[in-house]
Amino acid sequence: MYGRKNRNWKNKRKRNREAGFLQPVLLVALTVFICTYVEMVVLAAPASSAPILAEDKTKETLQMSWKLEAAENMLAVQDLIWDKIRREEGPMIVVDAGHGGEDSGCLGFGIYEKDINLQIALRVKQNLEERGFQVLMTRETDEFLSKEERAELANSYQADAYVSIHQNTYEGSDKSVSGIETWYDGADESRDNARLAELVHQQTIKSTGANERVLWDIADLYVTNKTLMPACLIETGFLTNRKECSQLSSAAYQEKIAEGIAEGIEMYFYAKTSA
Predict the structure, then answer these.
(1) What's the whole-number mean pLDDT along residues 209-237?
(2) Is the pTM of this model over 0.85?
(3) Which of 76, 85, 135, 200 is most buried by its number of CB atoms within 10 A?
(4) Residue 7's pLDDT is what?
(5) What is the pLDDT of residues 123-180, one digit of tens each?
(6) 180-218 pLDDT, tens per residue?
(7) Alpha-carbon distance 24 to 26, whole Å?
(8) CA-CA distance, 269 to 196, in Å (whole number)?
(9) Chain centre to alpha carbon of residue 74
């Protein structure tokens, strides 16, 4: 069980960077240069303490304005370089293994949701990296992160898509209910959530042969509502169904799920003429 009281969030982000997202030397060098420039030139106080005439004040104001504009232009160049690096390395996908730590999620036949979520998420990560994507995991161990931390992490890295992996449960008496559901926020028209959800949903069903359940357009899920990039949440099966729970615990079936999710993401970013 992992609590968050003694965890430093900045250290968490540092570990994620060290896992595969260190910025290129060029970008770091440029950033250091810009910071030094702003500190030494733009923010430097005049060395002379002599009285300043109105004409001198006007000239100084113009010079300061020019220097600030130059600094802003340099920052813009930095952004362009970073964007180019991102394009060359492939889109960044946040893969969110739902629950974790003291939050075990649902339980079925001795199987905890948090464990299945992480096993599938790690397989999705591998599949995506083999396809040329950058992958940022919200967690890679059995630790607890709040939904706010998960969204903050994705937004701070300006990721290109967010996919959260979960397992389902049926509280009624019919324990034969099975299949895959996918949830997204259709109220936010600024993000193409529906298309991402549909492709992930369809390709995972195709890969696994699972029962196709509905696409849910629901706006009140935090991780799909508060993220700034296209996002969806996929429930890959029902742990309350004994047969499906056994499948979800199988490495072979988990790999089929991972392949389907990765294929859906790839089709979202790189449209294909045939499925």
Answers:
(1) 96
(2) no
(3) 200
(4) 40
(5) 999 999 999 999 999 999 999 999 999 999 999 999 999 999 999 999 999 999 999 9
(6) 999 999 999 999 999 999 999 999 999 999 999 999 999
(7) 5
(8) 9
(9) 28
From 143, 181, 153, select the one nearest 21 (Cα to Cα).
153
Q: Tell me, what amino acid is at 83?
A: D
Measure the N-to-C terminal CA separation of the chain; round to a whole number of Å: 42
Residue 238's Cβ-side half-sphere holds a number of Cα atoms within 13 Å equal to 19
d(CA 234, CA 74): 41
Q: What is the pLDDT of residue 252?
A: 98
* Neighbouring residues of 85: CB distance < 8 A, sequence distance ≥ 6: 23, 24, 27
Is 224 within 8 Å of 231 (Cβ atoms)? yes
* HSE-up of residue 108 (Cα within 13 Å, Cβ side): 26
Residue owning tokens 């607890």:
144
Overall size of the chain counted in residues: 275
Handedness of CA 189, 117, 168, 2 (dihedral sign): negative
Radius of gyration of the chain (CA): 24
Q: How far apart are CA 246 and CA 256, in angstroms?
A: 14
Nearest to 211 by CA among 180, 242, 232: 180
Scan for tokens 């969204």, then name that residue.
151
Cα–Cα distance, 208 to 182 (Å, whole number): 15
Say which amino acid occupies 191.
R
